Amino acid sequence: MVRxxxxxxxxxxVFLLLLVTQAPVLAFPSPREPxxxxxxxxxxxxxxxxxxxxxxxxxxxxxxxxxxxxxxxxDMRGPCPGLNTLAAxxxxxxxGIASPSQIITAVQEGFNMNGQAARVxxxxxxxxxxxxxxxxxxxxxxxxxxxxxxxxxxxxGLSNHGTFEGDSSMTRGDNFFGNHIAFNKDLFDQFVExxxxxxxxxxxxxxxxxxxxxxxxQSIATNPNFKFLGLxxxxxxxxxxxxxxxxxxxxxxxxxxxQLDMDTxxxxxxxxxxxxxxxxxxxxxxxxxxxxxxxxxxxxxxxxVDGVNTFVVDHSLGSLxxxxxxxxxxxxxxxxxxxxxxxxxxRRNLNLNLDYLYTMVGSTNCPQVFPYGxx
Length: 375
What we know:
By secondary structure, the chain is mostly helical. Helix content is 38%, strand content 4%. The relative contact order is 0.18.
């Protein structure tokens, strides 16, 4: 078991998915018999996360080996345009189902994402919404392709509202309004408007700060169920800078670096497609600039408590200023609520995944949490 300290690395909304063969739909024999499940369904011991790639410079990623293809009926797509793009180009399985190791490899290969950030986000998403027995995660909604659910778990995929996915997205509506997954043209038009007003037609860190503040205020004023707590505060600010660092062609330098044009943005956000001839980032990246965006227009975690415009600050699940609190509450509150009393191989796999998460966060100012013991 890992026992080092904790601090989230460059936070990121990370991309997630990959390969799987269809599993039969079977009922579990009993919540008390995970060992029997392991014998009959081929439950996996989750391997350690993969290391960094050999080459970490820029290169062409829309190549002959990775053609774009539209999603087929039954393919999973979710709220993250980066993951959807990787699936559409075959860096992830085109059905949208993957193991954590496959996801980490894909986001590093396709976007040159910082390995540490990719691993942290991947393991958070997998622990909250993946199948911990089969080691598979849907980048979209719930599907039989991840295998039968572990006892008591929902395994709802990354589209499930309120765990990894949350309110005030830049190009997706809040769950309260009925569709938090599909591309929202009105919100993208606002994205373009702010890019024109504050960025000279490009999306950059200045635009990111203004648009993030705008989306929060819109949700407060229109969504009575708006929540911006702990992990969601982190991922929302990470979401604001990710396109700047990963959706800009890696050959751009000087004044063009960190400037996302609107045609390229539309290709990712709406079409899930690398622009023709697109080169990935020139060096590993992810959420560089997140503190700049937050400092320009800071907003504390919280929620509407009694309808619209009733926002109250709430630090109970941690905050950008308290990464340790996010980690501790994520494990002690959210994970424990999902898995109050895991047994056998489920408990083992939970502990392994929690260890992998903690190993990747890498600092010394937060003790590891052991919700299910140390073995």
